[in-house]
Structures are given as C-alpha cells and as structure tokens.
Amino acid sequence: MKPILKALVAAVCAAPLLVAAQAKSTADGIAEYRKMLEDGNPAELFEAKGEDLWKQARGPKKASLEKCDLGLGPGVVKGAWVQLPRYFADTGKVQDVESRLVTCMANLQGFNAEEIIKTPFGRGEMANVTALATWVAAESRGQKFNLPQAHLEEQRFYELGKRAFFFRGGPMDFSCASCHASDGKRIRLQELPNLTKNPGDGIGFAAWPAYRVSQGAMWSMQFRLNDCYRQQRFPYPGFASDLTVALGVYMGVNAKGAESIAPAIKR
Prior knowledge:
Elements: H1 3-38, H2 43-55, E1 86-88, E2 93-95, H3 97-109, H4 113-118, H5 124-138, H6 152-166, H7 177-180, E3 185-187, E4 190-192, E5 210-212, E6 217-219, H8 221-231, H9 242-254, E7 264-266
Parallel strand pairs: 5-7
Antiparallel strand pairs: 1-2, 3-4, 5-6
Helix pairs in contact: 2-5, 3-5, 6-9, 8-9
C-alpha cells in the first residue's frame, strides 16, 4: 500500500476515536464548570429566604406556614419534595410543591390564590413561592424520588403527563419528546437528558429548582416548564395548570430512585 493511501486509511480509522475524545473532553469540561459553580451557589440565598418566609407570620391572617401539609403531615418538610406532585384530599387535586404552597398561603395566611397565580414569575408573592419551593426542595436534598401512584388521580395525571410529553404541535411541530426522549442529544454545549426514564441522580427533574447563571435568577420547576413551552412556540400553559403538574408527575415517577440535588445551578 502506498504511503499516502496508508495515511488516509489511518486518518479515517482514527476519526471516530478523535470525535469520541473531543466529546468526552467537552462533557468533562462542562462537568468541571458546573462543579466550580456549585461552590457558593446563589440558590442558598433563596433557601434562606424561603425558610424565613415559612416561619414568618404573614398575610391578612398574620399566620406562618408551619402548619402547611405538603403531603407528609402538617409542618413536615423533610422528604416532602421527593414525593411531589401527589394527590391531596382537602383540595381533591394532584398538586406539585408550588401549587400546594399557594393553597397553604391562601388557607393559612389569607392570601388571594388567584392573584398569586396571575403574578409573573420573579415578582411579588410569586417570587416568594419560588423561594419557599427552593427551601422545601433543599430540605430533601440527597433523598431519592418516590412519587406515590396509589390514588386514581395520581395515575390519571401520570398518563396525562405522558400524553402531553409526546404531543407535537405549534409552528415548529415540537414536543417535549423532541429534545428529551432519547439518549445522547445535545444543543450546543447543553446535554439533553432522556426524561422518559430515570436519567440518573441529580439530572432532569431531580435538579430543579435551580439557579440560572445566565439569567441571574432562581427558576422553579413551574418556571422551567413554562419556558419549555415558550421555546416550543406554544402558548404559556400557565402557573400550576393541570398540564404542568401532570408533566411533573410523569417526570417525577420516571425519576424514581434518582437522588435529588435541588436546588442545583445551571448555566
């Protein structure tokens, strides 16, 4: 074989190894970058605010949230996040942590739930809901997700979430599954976890709420889901809608056994 031909053959054979090495190097670099960001995660400020809000006497009724039932009994916070969304008999609804907090703020403190729901993310009492959700999530850091599915409504919401996850539409003909239903996908430097199964500890559902460095803001799961619909060019589904709660059930059940690292930090 001629020397030039040998060189070409060697180059072709080496190309897949070079691509793999580059991909590994990129993934490692992103992991190192995130690790550095975790040291001094600004989410800690929101955690502290959320804990303070939980204990403060606020609202028209001048009461705290310390009797709020997040699913494990009045006032029990540790372990609640990794079992939400779930069905609540007092509302007759499946609720995630944010919608449940709004219920408690209305019932215990006298806030107007409809006004909170209409408030844009990051403003007024909606910002307080995000801080509270951040603290609640932090209290279950390191625990594994185990969402209940015994109640018929919990099962129904799982199926509703599954249908919503794979529903395609809008001007781009996108769905949640367009980005998050197979392994190995990436947008630029952003890995896209497969959320149709357990993606692993601290990935996907197990990483939110999270502090977004690029926005300099704390993002709750509700915020994340609403923004996903914006990126798909869909109308906003709205805060605490059945659709977003159902998607939370679908992803949360799929994440069974994954360890929560929330609140995490994102680019």
